[in-house]
Design goal:
about 400 residues, alpha/beta, 3-stranded parallel sheet, globular
C-alpha cells in the first residue's frame, strides 16, 4: 500500500501512539545487542526512495537522514538515528514505481530510483555501503555500516525482455518482486484478477533466468497460484520480501500454509511485513471499511477533495482503528516458523511504504520490541539470529552458488 495523499498526516497521527511502546528490559536489550553484533539484522523491504520521490521530489537537500525525519512536513519512518537504535545491519531498499506505470516508462523510472538510492548511499558514506552479495553484507556489517541492497518491486519494468532483466541485475538489483498490484503479461497479482492461473510459460522463463543470474525471485504481491508455480520452477531459494501469514490474517497478500510448507524444500525465506492490515484481521476489516468510506465520500463530492477529506476525518474519529500490537506481529513470525520451519522466516517491515503500523513499531527502531516479545515466548539466541538475518544470508548464499554453477 502506498498512499502519499493529503490523508498522510491524518493517518500517520492516528496510528502512532508511541506511549504504548513495549518496554524492553536492560537484560533483553543487552541480549539483543549481543545477537545483532554477530548477525546483521537484514530487513527485506523499505520504500525510502519512493517516499523521497513522492513527497520531496527526490531532492536530497530537503531531507537530512541524520536527523529525526518524524519532524518533516511529511513524516517518515526512516532515519539513521532510528536505524541505529533498531540495530539494522543491512537493508533492501526498494526501487519501486507504482503499478500504474507500464513499460517503457516504468523501466526508465526504476533506473531513476536506482540512481536515487545510489546518490543516497554516496551522500552518507559513514552510514551506508552498497552490497551485492552475502559476503558484502557480512563485511559491511562488521565495518559498522549498513549494507544496502536494491530490491525491484514490479516485473512490468522488464517489458517482457530478459535483456532488461539482466541489465537490472548488472545495475545492482538483488531481487525482483515478480509483480506489484496488477496482473501483468506473465504473472498474476494477489490483488488483481488472474489471467494466467499463476505464471505463464514466459513467467517460468523469467524465474529460471533470475536463478541463472543470481537475482532472488520475490513472491510478495503475486497470487497464491503464482507462488506455487514459482517455487515449483525455481531451483534457487525464493523470498517473500514483505509478506505475512494468511492463516492468521486473510489478506490476499499473505502466504497460505501450503506455500509455507513448500518453503522447506525450496530453502527460501518469508520476511514478515509489519503493515497493520496484514498482521491483524480486525485491522484488515477496518482498513477495508475506511477505503470504502473514502470511495463513497469522493463519489459524493466530485472535484472537492477538501470535503471528502473532512468527511473521512470525521468517519475515522467516529470509528477508531483497532489496536495492533507487537504481539500480533510475533504471532505471524511464530506461525511461519511452525509451518515452514525456523530456518525460513525473516523480517521485511515495509517502512515508508505503509501508514498503519503496530504500537511501538512505528519506525525503523521497531524491531527490538519484537525480538523481546519472542524471547519472552521462549525463542533462543540462535533462533532470533536466524530470524534477524541468518536465514536470508543462507538463502542468498545458496542462490549465489546456483548462479555460479549455471
Amino acid at each position: 500500500m502506498r498512499l502519499f495523499l493529503p490523508l498522510l498526516a491524518l493517518a500517520f497521527s492516528a496510528f502512532a501512539p508511541a506511549s504504548h511502546a513495549q518496554d524492553v528490559s536492560a537484560r533483553e536489550s543487552a541480549r539483543i545487542e549481543r545477537i545483532l553484533r554477530r548477525t546483521p539484522l537484514i530487513d527485506g523491504h523499505n520504500d525510502l526512495a519512493w517516499s523521497l520521490r513522492a513527497n520531496f521530489d527526490s531532492d536530497l537537500e530537503r531531507v537530512d537522514l541524520n536527523s529525526d525525519t518524524r519532524e518533516l512536513s511529511t513524516p517518515m519512518h526512516t532515519d539513521f538515528p532510528r536505524l541505529r537504535a533498531g540495530g539494522v545491519g543491512a537493508q533492501f531498499w526498494s526501487v519501486y514505481v507504482p503499478a500504474r506505470y507500464s513499460a517503457p516508462e516504468s523501466t526508465a523510472l526504476v533506473f531513476e530510483q536506482i540512481d536515487l538510492m545510489q546518490r543516497i548511499i554516496a551522500r552518507y558514506p559513514r552510514q551506508l555501503e552498497f552490497a551485492d552479495s552475502a559476503g558484502d553484507i557480512v563485511r559491511i556489517h562488521r565495518a559498522g555500516r549498513i549494507a544496502s541492497m536494491f530490491g525491484m518491486e514490479g516485473g512490468e519494468a522488464i517489458n517482457n525482455n530478459l535483456a532488461l532483466l539482466r541489465s537490472f541485475r548488472r545495475a545492482g538489483v538483488l531481487y525482483m518482486t515478480l509483480t506489484h498490484a496488477t496482473t501483468i503479461d506473465w504473472v498474476d497479482s494477489a490483488t488483481d484478477a488472474p489471467q494466467h492461473e499463476g505464471l505463464s510459460p514466459f513467467g517460468e522463463e523469467v524465474v529460471r533466468e533470475m536463478n541463472r543470474i543470481g537475482m532472488l525471485a520475490d513472491l510478495s504481491h503475486v497470487s497464491a497460484d503464482a507462488m506455487r508455480d514459482a517455487i515449483r520452477v525455481s531451483e534457487a531459494p525464493v523470498i517473500f520480501s514483505h509478506s505475512s501469514a494468511f492463516a492468521i490474517t486473510a489478506h490476499p497478500r499473505n502466504v497460505p500454509d501450503d506455500v509455507l510448507e513448500m518453503m522447506r524444500a525450496n530453502g527460501g525465506v518469508v520476511m514478515v511485513n509489519f503493515n497493520a492490515p496484514f498482521v491483524s484481521e480486525a485491522m484488515r476489516a477496518w482498513s477495508a471499511q475506511r477505503r470504502a468510506e473514502d470511495a463513497r465520500l469522493n463519489s459524493l463530492n466530485p472535484g472537492n477533495a477538501e470535503a471528502a477529506h473532512a468527511g473521512l476525518a470525521a468517519w475515522m474519529e467516529a470509528n477508531p482503528h483497532p489496536r495492533v500490537t507487537v504481539s500480533d506481529v510475533a504471532d505471524h513470525v511464530e506461525h511461519i516458523a511452525r509451518v515452514a520451519g525456523h530456518a525460513h522466516v525473516g523480517l521485511g517491515a515495509d517502512y515508508d511504504g505503509v501508514f498503519y503500523l503496530p504500537e511501538g513499531m512505528e519506525g525503523v527502531d521497531g524491531y527490538t520490541p519484537l525480538f523481546a516479545e519472542l524471547m519472552r515466548r521462549g525463542w533462543s539466541d540462535a533462533e532470533i539470529a536466524a530470524l534477524a538475518g541468518g536465514n536470508l544470508l543462507r538463502a542468498l548464499r545458496e542462490a549465489e552458488r546456483f548462479a555460479h554453477r549455471s
